[in-house]
Structure formats: C-alpha cells, structure tokens
Amino acid sequence: MSLRSALGLSIFLVSAAFAPADTVFASCYTNAGSKGIYAVSFDEATGMLGQPVLAAATANPSFIILSPNGDRLFACNELSGSGGAASFAVNRDHLTFLSAQSTGGKGPCHLALSADTKVLYLANYPSGSLASLPVDADGILHPATSVIPFKGSGPNHERQASPHAHCTVVDPSGRYLLVCDLGSDRIWTFSIDQTTDTLSPAPVPFAVMPPGTGPRHLQFAPNGKDVYLVSEMASTVTAMHWHPENGRLEPFQTISMLPAGFSGKNTAAELQFDSGGRHLYASNRGDDSIVVYNIAADGTLTLAQRAPVGGHTPRYFALDPSQHFVLVALQDSGQIRVLRRDPANGQLSPTGQSVDLSRVVCLAFGVE
Predict the structure, then answer these.
(1) Which residues contact 153 (CB under 8 A, 6 or more apart)?
(2) S-S: 61 plus which of 27, 262, 301, 327, CB 3.0-4.6 Å?
C-alpha cells in the first residue's frame, strides 16, 4: 500500500466561493466523524463563520501551516504507526493534494518551513525525533534527508519517560531551528546551513527548563529579540531573551497561566501575539480559558485578563487578519468559537458566534 493510500489522502475540491483572506482552514482528527481539513468562510466585519466544507480528505491531520504567499498548505498526519506529512495546493477556494511523505517517526504533531521554504521540519511526538523533508518549487515533499532522535527524560514517569518533540520553530533570521522537547524539559537549538539547508547543533545546543515543566510550544515575539514558551505540564509562560550570536536562550520571567487556588487538571496549549507585539495570548485546557498578558517594553508580562472560551479544550486559537477577533479551536466541544478582541487593550469578549466541527485541532487563515 502506498503512503498516499495509507494516509487516506485524496483530491477534494471545495465548492464554496470566497476569497482566501476570508477563509479559515481547520484540521480535525478523523476518529470521530471528521474527514480531514475543512474550509470555513469568515466575515472580518461581523465575525460570522460559514458552515465548514471539506477541503481535503486526509488521515488525522493535526498541525497545519500555509506557505508565506499562501499558495501551499502543509499538514502533519498524526498517526501512531508511521507518521506522515502532506502538501496541498491552495487555489482560492479549494485544496488540491500534491504529495505525502513519511516523517520517519510516530505521531508528528507540529511543523515549520525553513526561511527559503525548501525544507519542512516536523516534530515526531511519541518517537521524540525531528525530521527534515525537502520541499521542491512545486510544493512536492521528498523523502526525509534527516531524522534526528533526542535523548533524555523528566521526573514525571507517566509523561516524561522518554523524549517527546512537540514544536519546531525557525528563528527570524532563518539561521536557527528551535525544538521543544516535553519529555526531557529541554529546548534544542540547531544551526541551519542556509546554503545546504543541513542542520548541526548550535554553539549553545539546548536550554534546560525546570524539571517537570514539559515545554510545549514557543514563539518569537514580533520584535525578534524575545522568545516566549508555554509549558504544558506546569501551565506557565516563560519569557526569554534570544542571543542569535550563539543560539542561547536566557529566561528572565516565568508566570503562571492559572488563577490562584486552581485545583483541577490543566494542560497549557498554545500562544499567540497580536501583530504589534503589545499583547500575548495563551490557552488553558482544563481551566478552558485564554489568558491575556500585556507586554512591557522590556518584554516582561503582566496579567490583563483571563477570558473563558465558552467550551472545552482550546487546543489552538488564531487572531484574524483584522486583529478584531480570535477564533478558538475547541477540540472536545467540537466547535470553532469566535471571541471579539478590543485592539486598544487586547482583551476578549464573547460574540456568540460558533460553528460545529468535530475534533477540530488547528486553524490557519488563508493569505490574500
């Protein structure tokens, strides 16, 4: 059986007619009725969502990203056997399947493109490894040129008995790749040879986080100078200065995402910035909230708001291009819910707008 057949990939045209800037692509786990990646129309003036339309049938897509110009979409196929990645052409109102490749590990859950868009980097979560897949000019994925296994463990024997790569992020210069490892409480840093696109350990090859915190996702602030990390198990955000001369991360603040006295089960999930870099947003699964932080000139965070999301398990969320709304993927509620954002203070409020979509995982706005 070919990898394409194993992943259940097929070409499927979206029939709805709306411009890419008004389209949200939503990936869904396919074990509860959903069939893959959906397209949803979005009205930036009103916050209204259209009904989801199947854009591509593909097995268990989790994290999805678009190329910088929006003409290609890449997806992880988070399979417990041989995990895969897939690429699609975005043609205004439909996705066309282009290619699929193995990631050389199990359960890929996150991906990133190199600065020149010639390599796709993927984090294999159960395998605890990083895969590099070449991407040609037509968006076709080629067999992995490297699969790098990590080593290490953490104090939580149930969740940290082995490495668990959870995130891949290319720094603003395109010279470094950072990988969060929830299992070993480390952030690994690789130098990228921008001529050959090969990886090697950075001069400072990793940063060690406090034991048992479980680093999940990180992002560079819009200023390119600071990095912010969500730790899944500790439910914290850590602010770090970035030193591009050697790839060193220098933590300077860690702040809890939970309210005082919270005693339930919680796992932190995603973080996003507004375009001006004045506010940071981070989601809680359990407390079921998005926490809003103000970012000071020196990069430190102060709590501005803890906004309920109106459902369960905000696995992912995204600010719309107008920055007036936040769309939340509620995995266990099976919904995409719209929150209104006040651009003046960054705070969120409910709109009452939502659409049902089973096991929704990730969202990506089309590029105009």
Answers:
(1) 160, 161, 162, 163, 183, 184
(2) 27
